[in-house]
Amino acid sequence: MTSPNARPQERPARPHFSSGPCAKRPGWTPDVLGDALLGRSHRSAPGKARISEALARTRTLLELPDSHRVAIVPASDTGAVELSLWSLLGARGVEILAWESFGQGWVTDVVKQLRIEDVLVRAADYGALPDLAATDFARDVVFCWNGTTSGVKVPDGAWIADDREGLVIADATSAAFAMPLPWDKLDVATFSWQKVLGGEAQHGMLVLGPRAVERLETHTPPWPLPKLFRLVKGGKLDASLFDGGAINTPSLLCLEDYLDALKWAEGLGGLSALLGRCRANLAALEDWVAKTPWIDFLAADSATRSETSICLSITDPWFRDLPAGEQAAFTKAMAGLLEDEGVAFDINGYRDAPPGLRIWGGATVEAADMARLPAWLEWAFAETLAARRTAA
């Protein structure tokens, strides 16, 4: 193990490993916002053209089929998910797969807020998945493609039935642009700009397949729908929302930033290049974890291990014997040391997750920076352990 006094020499050029908002794309400066359409209405011809451009570039980059529609909606990924739940559920029973805090949040929405009676929850502890093969696709199925707070993802879409009767609604906010998504299996998918492409927050993206559109046009939910959730006019999908319109006013400054991120991704080579960058970031940590005795991934199964929200657990027996509060204090101290050194910002584990570290490996993070991080993690571990022993 590295000595507490052996401070590493090489620092990540960019210490931004936060899981949201995430690192801006390499080379980003405020100058890229110089052409933002400020002071203009989003309903003006230029405003609608900018929104339409963002939707078209999103469609191309994600390789969406012609059958699917995409729109900008309010309130980030959370708004996009809740818009979907409020607008689409209620026609049949619901099954929710939950293995981390955001999945549990959708359980709360469906059970306690919408108060749907016929709900089946399949839950798993942090680090694991529920039995995907047991999913009942006669129900509407809600799940997170990637568990942002647990580092556990679904491995693929093979478990999703082609002949499903219900809808499949996937919160894909830390998976879109980072993991292959089988669009023919997803009736609804949501994400935000602030994750894999490092855009600014507060705007959500909604992708609807034809089965979701049919549900919207044939099912009226039994609960009130806020204006921010309304996708239907006169019994038909409001097509304008998917062609340069918006439910409420988007920030054209943030939109310009999103356009810059999309163009950057296109310049890299598109979706395959983004996926490759994410895989390279995870690989940089996998090599180190494999040879380091005191650390491991929270997601033990490599097939379900996230390449974006990379969650690490301290595995030394003495650490595991500590009360949860002391474990949390230790990882917080480690993360604080690294932040003070300016080598890794915001990598303490999510507040509801088991104590540990969470490192973002999305496409805007450089693999060279990720490769420099392990030496600093070892240094911070040794320093924090030495401080604890001294205090004792």
Count of domains? 2
Biggest sheet features: 7 strands, mixed
CATH H level, superfamily name of the largest domain: Type I PLP-dependent aspartate aminotransferase-like (Major domain)
SS field, number of helical segments: 9
CATH class of the largest domain: Alpha Beta
Alpha-carbon distance between the two ends: 21 Å
Order of helical and strand elements: HEHEHEEEEEEEHEEHHEEHHEH
Briefly note the CATH topology name of the largest domain. Aspartate Aminotransferase, domain 2
Q: Give the strand order, joined by hyphens, for the main sheet.
A: 1-9-8-7-4-2-3
Overall strand count? 14
Helix content: 25-40%
Alpha carbon gyration radius: 22 Å
Q: Which segments are poorly predicted (pLDDT under 50) over 5 or more consecutive residues? A: none
CATH architecture tag of the largest domain: 3-Layer(aba) Sandwich
Features:
Aspartate Aminotransferase, domain 1, three-stranded antiparallel β-sheet, 15% strand, 392 residues, 14 strands, 2 domains
Give a description of the structure.
This protein has 392 residues and is an alpha/beta fold. It folds into two domains: 36-266, Aspartate Aminotransferase, domain 2 (3-Layer(aba) Sandwich); 270-391, Aspartate Aminotransferase, domain 1 (Alpha-Beta Complex). Helix content is 35%, strand content 15%. The chain is built from nine helices and 14 strands. α3 links the parallel β2 (94-98) and β3 (119-123). α6 runs parallel beside α9 (367-391). The radius of gyration is 22 Å and the shape is globular. The relative contact order is 0.18. The mean pLDDT is 97.
